[in-house]
User: What shape does this take?
Amino acid sequence: MLNHHDVVVESPTGSGKTLSYLLPTFSMLDKKTTLRQHEFGAVVLSPSRELSVQIATVAAPFAAKLGYSVVVAVGGTKVEKNLKNLKRGGNILIATPGRLYQLLSLDKSDSLKRSLKTVEMLVVDEADRFNESQFEMHLKEILQVLPKQRRTGLFSATQAKQLEDLSIFGLRNKKVIKIKEATNLVSPSTLNNFYTECETSEKLMHVVEFIRSKPDKKVLVFFPSCGGVKYFHTVGAFTYLYWYACLKNDHFTLFTVTLPRQNAQSR
Assistant: This one.
């Protein structure tokens, strides 16, 4: 998505699908000119109220940190409440297609349509559900309002092939990504994903503090290159952790592993 591709993604439930589209969305918006109060930079469509609320809960902390606001428009709530929230303005709209279609129909002043003209990213979660006839009319009306020059991401836990057939979205420069799990493996129910945004100069400090906060855990730290591994090992970046552990009579062993260059290139 960050490399100007529309994407069709099939990924198992619990594999971090929500973050996989929210993070590049925020990254893309953060590189653009600052959005005004009534300019949406991204729209996330989901087939159900519950999923929309869940997505908004995940998105809210990132949006607040970057100075953006999230607006949720879903069925099961009064239309007047949605209209009131839209009048306050927002930058990321998370909605069910039925309610967004209804709001567009009531938009006599075209203020909502104008707010959607700045959309850079359209994300459709559980996109396989959008093949259902009940969504087709709503989608057509919504897509007519959104800019043609946008990035689009279709995400689902199943049926990537079926998503590719959704020509209504007009995907451009498309990439299809399928993430499969072995049939005898499942994502741990206790799996937690963490993401920290910080200055480059502060990254190592945050890594060290995170490791210190988990004194009873084994930790793997990955660097993007063999050079990075060798550098941080050579300068003794993690020696501090070793002495900290010694002072607390904890067991601490530091291992470093790098791949030979030819193997790294072939992987």
Notes: Residues 200-266 form one domain. The beta strands are 6-10, 42-45, 70-73, 92-95, 121-125, 151-156, 174-178. The first helix runs from residue 17 to 30. The radius of gyration is 22 Å.
